[in-house]
Amino acid sequence: MLTEVFYRRLFIGISILVPAIVTVLFYVNPSQQVDLGFDLKLFPKFHALLNSMATVFLISGFVAIKNKNIKVHRSFMWAAFAVSTIFLVSYVTYHSISAPTKFGGEGTIKYIYLFLLLTHIVMAAVILPFILFTFYRALTGDYTKHRKIAKITLPLWLYVTITGVIVYFMIAPYY
């Protein structure tokens, strides 16, 4: 039987590995776009859609648990986890086959964009272990610890999903 120590180490490993991979992708860009037979600019739109869906699922899950509907809460949280996982895989794939897009705005809007982007990136890295441990606590039936960590996880996760969409709309004209 796998122990809590195993899962703790696994989640910490994943939480270090994922941001490391994403960081490497920003420094090791392909010399040319990969041809997948469709416009790669669909990826950012898809990512914004996934982040929007995750936001809706997270809020719906929160409302469900406040109404003490555990089964509906669980379904929405699994849906948020699933679309966020699909987002992560798609995001890493996109950035491994496509050159980065530069934000073209100037002045105050550029600083707003950079602030949102930076905080989004930092929170996206920070939130991963929180999500994994929150799910672990729920799956193991440790609801006291689950509720405690979920109070931190939910607002951070929402920040990441919402700012992901905002960042997309701010940079979309430059794709």
In short:
The protein is an all-alpha fold and 175 residues long. It has helices at 4-27, 42-66, 70-97, 108-139, 143-171. 79% of the residues lie in helices and 0% in strands.
Task: Tell me the layout of helices and strands.
Blueprint: H1 4-27, H2 42-66, H3 70-97, H4 108-139, H5 143-171
Helix pairs in contact: 1-4, 2-3, 2-5, 4-5
Q: What do you see in this structure?
A:
The protein is mostly helical and 175 residues long. It is built from 5 helices and no strands. The model has no long low-confidence stretch (mean pLDDT 91).
Task: Determine the structural class based on helices, strands and strand pairing.
Answer: mainly alpha
Order of SSEs: HHHHH
Radius of gyration: 17 Å
Mean pLDDT: 91
Morphology call:
globular
Q: Bin the strand percentage.
A: under 5%
Helix content: over 70%
Q: Given the structure, what is the number of helices?
A: 5
Work out the number of β strands: 0
Q: Low-confidence spans: pLDDT under 50, at least 5 residues?
A: none
Q: For the record, give the distance between the C-alpha atoms at the N and C termini, rounded to a whole number.
A: 49 Å
Largest sheet: none
Attribute tags:
single chain; 175 residues; mainly alpha
